[in-house]
Amino acid sequence: MNARQLKNSILQMAVQGKLVPQDPNDEPASVLLERIRAEKQRLIRLNKAGKIKKDKNESVIYRAQPVGARFIAPFEQNEPRFFERTADGTVRDITDELPFDVPETWEWVRLGTLCNFGYCENVEPDKIAPDAWLLDLEDIEKDTGRVIQRKKKHEVKALSTKHFFTAGQVLYSKLRPYLNKVIIADDDGFCTSEILPLDFGTDVYNRYAQAYLMSPFFVEYVTQCSYGVKMPRLGTQDGRNALVPLPPLAEQRRIVERIEQLLPHIAEYDDAEQKLTALNAAFPDQIKKSILQAAVQGKLVEQNPNDEPASLLLERIRTEKEQLIKAGKIKKEKPLPPVTEDEIPFDIPETWAWVRLRDVVYNHGQTKPQSDFCYIDIGSINNQQQRLNENETILTASKAPSRARKIVKQGDILYSTVRPYLHNMCIVDRKFSHTPIASTGFAVMACYEGLSNRYLFNFLLSPDFDNYANSIENSKGVAYPAINDSRLYNALVPLPPLAEQYRIVDKCEKLLPHIERCRDMGAQASRLHEYLRQALNYE
């Protein structure tokens, strides 16, 4: 149960008489209701224009015990029947229409009997003082009963006719009522016509009325009878007809006091729930990052003293590089500066070595398409799984984008240098129906024989390299930050012995799928919870 559901449960218990115990010494709601009706008749006789009018459809709900064809009230048995007598004298049994039982000291009543629902005092804009408070729907936070901003008339450009309200009135939004925008006015002011100022007088505690209007019981009723698709709203007569479980006035105050005692705890629960949700959402990624970082620091698998050290591996890589240069397959480049002690971000095992990225990878150069080809751009990669999409993008040479230039071969690593934090990267793991050519937005990395492309790929995903590639010094630009080739290939790479590279890759490939399954299970659980919530209409 989340915080909102917990709050709704409390409000539902409140209006059902289950939140606080009843006190037999309380004046019963039946007496309270008599006073409310008497006061209403007095105001009608005084002709309080715009504040209250005689409701031709007003009714009286009462308990009675059926005896043959007659009805005797009050009843004395345990299972009463409830009847409603309308203004024209018609009486009907509404027992089965009542949604739940209420304590004997409570009464059922229509909302229109308790307040001026639909009768509001309209005020033209030119009659509103410049410093008057103007309240709009967007000024009210949903579900909380809290005003999030207060505007004065002189701060608002366009004005229309407003409803006048006074301090202490309940302000209820009849537009999109499921948002639960219900507040108690703490000052006089003017509101949009979509907000109804409700005056419950002195015999209904305004904070109990607010709790009732925000309760799942009332919200469900409103949802069923609202009209309109995009902007549903509650009609005036439907609002007046809403059933209200009315407690004694003293119990109303006890209910509100109890709610206000519980709300801070609900807020704490909500805060803890949000933190837990965020932690659960971040957990798979954090574990994945921890595994990758441990891998590139030599902490994921044990070192084997019999492994050929990385220093000898580097010698073979240099020999292979010289052979490729002689064969004209790659160009000779200016040597990179040696790795200094100050650059090293963390310690590595003795059998490892620090190298620069360009020392262990090369590329195949560029070409302009001369025939049909398979184009690989950012959209060709699933950056959640770091894999090529199944579908190929086949283009003719005449329709080749100007960025379609980089030669790609199977086994190469493609790394997007634009917005590197998105991890648009993959290993080219298959053959294509036509020659593949990648966008110049990628760095194409072919590994020398002494370097596992899977190990390097995991390193490029590690937090250490991620921080380097996305640092302010290396990733330039605002909307589309990018790292240039010089800074990219200058990055430090922790190089393990080749045998250990394979052990690291094997360990990662065993662990990482479990993390993705946990992520999928979490997403499935969330979807199932949402489906059940909607199916049960459980807000």
Tally of contiguous helical segments: 13
Task: Quote the average pLDDT.
Answer: 89
Name given to the CATH architecture of the largest domain: Alpha-Beta Complex
Uncertain runs:
72-76, 535-539
Brief digest:
The protein has 13 helices and 30 strands. With 539 residues, it is of the alpha+beta class. The C terminus is likely disordered.
Provide structural commentary:
The chain is an alpha+beta fold and 539 residues long. The protein folds into two domains: 3-56 and 99-271, DNA methylase specificity domains (Adenine-n6-DNA-methyltransferase TaqI, Chain A, domain 2, Alpha-Beta Complex), CATH 3.90.220; 303-498, Alpha-Beta Complex (Adenine-n6-DNA-methyltransferase TaqI, Chain A, domain 2). It is 35% helix and 19% strand. The chain contains 13 helices and 30 strands. The strands form ten sheets. The protein has a five-stranded mixed beta sheet, with no helix packed on it. α7 packs antiparallel against α13 (498-535). The longest helix has 48 residues, at 249-296. The protein is elongated. The relative contact order is 0.09.
Please give the structural blueprint.
Elements: H1 3-15, H2 29-45, E1 60-67, E2 70-72, E3 81-85, E4 91-93, E5 107-110, H3 111-114, E6 122-123, E7 133-135, E8 140-141, E9 146-147, E10 151-152, E11 162-165, E12 170-173, E13 182-184, E14 189-191, E15 195-198, H4 206-213, H5 216-225, H6 236-241, E16 243-246, H7 249-296, H8 310-326, E17 353-356, H9 357-360, E18 361-362, E19 373-376, E20 381-382, E21 387-388, E22 394-395, E23 404-407, E24 413-416, E25 425-427, E26 436-439, E27 442-447, H10 453-461, H11 463-469, E28 475-476, E29 482-483, H12 485-489, E30 492-495, H13 498-535
Parallel strand pairs: 7-14, 19-26
Antiparallel strand pairs: 1-2, 1-3, 3-4, 5-16, 6-11, 7-10, 8-9, 11-14, 12-13, 12-15, 17-30, 18-27, 19-22, 20-21, 23-26, 24-25, 24-27, 28-29
